[in-house]
Amino acid sequence: MSPELQRQYENIDAYDMIMHLKELFDEASRTKRYEISKELFRCKMIEGSLVNTHVLKMINYIEKLSQLGFVMDNELSIDLVLQPLP
Q: Which of 29, 36, 42, 49 is deepest in the core (most CB within 10 A)?
């Protein structure tokens, strides 16, 4: 940890430190969630492409959202994957 950062958090308890860091990084996480969810909901299968490729792409988006704290139930995930299929 840099000396400046250490001084900044020197007199702060662990809970307040975590809450402050969460505030700092939560907005970036929200932006990422927005971008990924936009890609997921707009994703269409390209005519002539493989179903396998499309499904893996959709699963990747769903897993990325899950890692960012946006967990969908299985039925919604399945519906999102199946919807754009011909």
A: 36
**φ and ψ of 42, to 5 deg:** -95, -5
- Average pLDDT in the chain: 86
Q: Which domain holds residue 59?
A: 3-82
Query: What is the chain's Cα-based Rg?
Result: 19
Please give the average per-residue pLDDT across 19-23, as a whole number: 77
Q: Which long-range contacts (CB under 8 A, 24 or more apart) does 61-65 make?
A: 61/36, 61/37, 64/32, 64/36, 65/33, 65/36, 65/37, 65/40
For the chain, the maximum distance between any two Cα atoms, rounded to a whole number of angstroms, is 61
pTM of the model: 0.67
With 0-12 / 13-18 / 19 or more C-beta atoms within 10 angstroms meaning exposed / middle / buried, residue 53 is exposed
Average pLDDT over residues 32-47: 91
